[in-house]
Write a structure and sequence with these properties.
single chain; 280 residues; alpha/beta; TIM Barrel; DNA polymerase, domain 1; 2 domains; 7-stranded mixed sheet; 9 helices; 7 strands; 41% helix; binds adenosine monophosphate; binds manganese (II) ion
Length: 280
């Protein structure tokens, strides 16, 4: 059985499709031995995941993927080894979860007024699933209502910028949110740095700001990264003195290209952030 780790995954407590127990069963079947659950802006799945991991002999890391913004762009930060007793973090999580619920309602309104479809009903369905609602919930509801063929089509037709359901969103500033998260966890990790639409110079500035505000690592090795992305982000980590994390960003077993625990090894000279999690 291979010895794998995965430090970025989602359950149905946010926009993943599996329960924490089913996610853990899948991780166990893949040979994952160290697993973090990192749902968007919630830790509500972590207790169930911890119990399932203990039963499966997997080391568990309580995590979260926090929504923040930097220079007006949404930036995700994964917190690993979360302290459940941190009141400051709990308040930040509540604030962002509320912003997410309000955003779903605002998007529903726009879909109704600008898109001329049953947007309020779509929003209600997206909220019905429980958990922290994301645009993925809206995309799935749009498919269920017959307004899109699949989730990607729903983003392209209704939700993306310049589409009828686009609503600008304001997340907490990285400079405020990151120090709070960093104090309440073992390691704050800049999620999927290769995916942001930033110039090389802006990405270097983001990584430098991230390190200065208490960030520990970049996701250097992820499912979906090209070899070029991998080299570029590894160089950025070395340059900023940041460690490296690995994760699949797993959401859905029906998506075959990001199975739990599969991505390239961290390159030489990158300190694995997992070392900080030895007894998390
Ligand atoms: P958000 O609510 O904006 O944080 O988006 C929630 C999730 O939807 C993300 O974590 C992605 O999994 C997915 N997503 C966001 N934007 C897109 C897009 N343009 N196309 C497809 N999926 C997206
Ligand atoms: Mn997601
Ligand atoms: Mn993300
Ligand atoms: Mn994610």
């Amino acid at each position: 059985m291979p010895d794998l780790l995965d430090l970025h995954t989602h359950s149905h407590h946010s926009d993943g499709v599996l329960s924490p127990a089913d996610l853990v069963a899948r991780a166990a079947a893949r040979g994952v031995s160290l697993l973090a659950l990192t749902d968007h802006d919630t830790v509500t799945g972590c207790d169930a995941a911890r119990v399932a991991c203990a039963a499966a002999g997997i080391r568990f890391v309580a995590g979260i993927e926090m929504s923040t913004q930097w220079r007006g762009q949404a930036i995700h930060v994964v917190g690993l080894g979360i302290d459940p007793a941190s009141a400051a973090l709990a308040a930040q999580i509540d604030d962002v979860a509320n912003r997410r619920r309000e955003r779903v309602l605002a998007i529903g309104e726009r879909l109704a007024t600008r898109g001329r479809i049953a947007g309020r009903e779509v929003a209600a369905a997206a909220l019905e699933a429980g958990g922290v609602p994301t645009r993925m919930h809206l995309a799935r509801a749009l498919v269920d209502f017959g307004f899109a063929d699949d989730a990607q089509h729903a983003f392209d037709k209704w939700l993306n910028r310049d589409r009828p359901g686009h609503v600008p969103v304001v997340w907490p500033e990285l400079a405020d949110a990151l120090p709070r998260l960093a104090r309440a966890c073992r390691a704050a990790v800049l999620a999927h740095p290769h995916r942001y639409r930033l110039s090389g110079g802006a990405l270097r500035q983001l990584a430098a700001d991230f390190a200065a505000a208490g960030g520990a690592a970049l996701e250097v090795s992820m499912a979906g990264m090209s070899p070029g992305d991998h080299d570029r982000i590894a160089s950025l980590a070395r340059r900023c003195g940041l460690e490296g994390s690995v994760g699949s960003d797993f959401h859905d077993p029906a998506v075959p290209w990001n199975p739990l625990g599969r991505f390239a090894k961290l390159p030489c000279g990158i300190v694995p952030v997992a070392e900080r999690l030895a007894d998390a």
